[in-house]
Structure to design on (325 residues):
């Protein structure tokens, strides 16, 4: 029941091969050092109470591979603590998993002053965590989540916000080549806020959320949400009678479909666009054969909607509105 702290001053390592570590109340690797490596592999199991991850480490690696399992009971999953930078948290290979047993606790992926860290799920690996924030606090900048091939998946059991506060920005997400991110199997919301400048790319991959909003804070500007490739799935199964603001606040944000379709189990999406006086100079673009079917579409939804918002439908793309009354 004690705390397990693995510290490598420079270039050290912790390797768990076909073994089990159980009941550590908290786990932290390379709390304040650099260039360490922790490998959990060959069907090993690492179970602990709280997932503090790297602490303030720099240029270190945690790798879960070969069907190994990492689980933590509760409390926030915080892979990168205050001041951490250039770390890699990798889950790779079929059967390899990272799992929070209590999904009600929100993760804090990229905490205060953490930068240039990468969470990467690949080669059929999976991760399950609660809903929470990516870019939790001021100074969380230029971190990345990558889910990069078929069978690889992160499921957030709740809503996810990129850039949680002003001063958190440029945190990016890449889902590619058959990878998937789902928010409670598509029933929770996805938002981009904070100080913006984030890019979310779904490239021949799958993204499921009840709905999404690019720019939830006045300071959230210069964000891009791009879905590309006919093998991409953008699924937003919210109720058709609920308002769906693509943009809410901020400006110079862009939502783009490029040779991709926007689908929903309900068959149609009720959509408001450019909602609010603080939402301006945003762009929705359907390009290169994209097919979109919406219940309604509003360019400037209410009387106070911002100026200079644009809708582009080009390159043989179609936008079909299905409301009949």
């Amino acid at each position: 029941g004690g705390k397990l702290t693995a510290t490598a001053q420079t270039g050290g390592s912790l390797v768990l091969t076909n073994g089990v570590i159980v009941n550590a109340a908290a786990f932290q690797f390379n709390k304040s050092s650099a260039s360490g490596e922790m490998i959990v592999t060959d069907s090993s199991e690492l179970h602990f109470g709280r997932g503090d991850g790297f602490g303030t480490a720099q240029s270190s690696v945690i790798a879960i591979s070969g069907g190994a399992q990492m689980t933590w009971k509760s409390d926030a999953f915080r892979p990168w603590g205050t001041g951490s930078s250039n770390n890699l948290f990798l889950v790779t290979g079929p059967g390899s998993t990272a799992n929070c047993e209590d999904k009600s606790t929100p993760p804090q992926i990229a905490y205060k002053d953490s930068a240039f860290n990468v969470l990467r799920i690949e080669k059929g690996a999976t991760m399950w965590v609660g809903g929470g924030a990516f870019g939790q606090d001021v100074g969380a900048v230029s971190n990345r989540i990558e889910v990069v091939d078929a069978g690889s998946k992160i499921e957030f059991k709740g809503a996810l916000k990129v850039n949680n506060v002003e001063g958190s920005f440029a945190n990016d997400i890449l889902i590619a080549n058959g990878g998937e991110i789902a928010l409670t199997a598509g029933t929770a919301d996805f938002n981009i806020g904070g100080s913006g400048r984030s890019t979310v790319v779904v490239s021949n991959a799958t993204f499921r959320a009840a709905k999404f909003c690019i720019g939830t804070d006045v300071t959230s500007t210069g964000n891009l949400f791009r879905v590309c490739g006919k093998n991409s799935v953008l699924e937003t199964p919210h109720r058709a009678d609920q308002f769906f603001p693509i943009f809410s606040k901020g400006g110079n944000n862009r939502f783009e479909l490029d040779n991709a379709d926007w689908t929903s189990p309900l068959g149609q999406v009720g959509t408001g666009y450019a909602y609010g006086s603080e939402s301006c100079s945003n762009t929705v673009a359907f390009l290169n054969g994209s097919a979109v079917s919406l219940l309604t579409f509003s360019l400037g939804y209410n009387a106070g909607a911002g100026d200079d918002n644009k809708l582009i439908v080009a390159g043989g793309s179609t936008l079909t509105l299905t409301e009949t009354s």
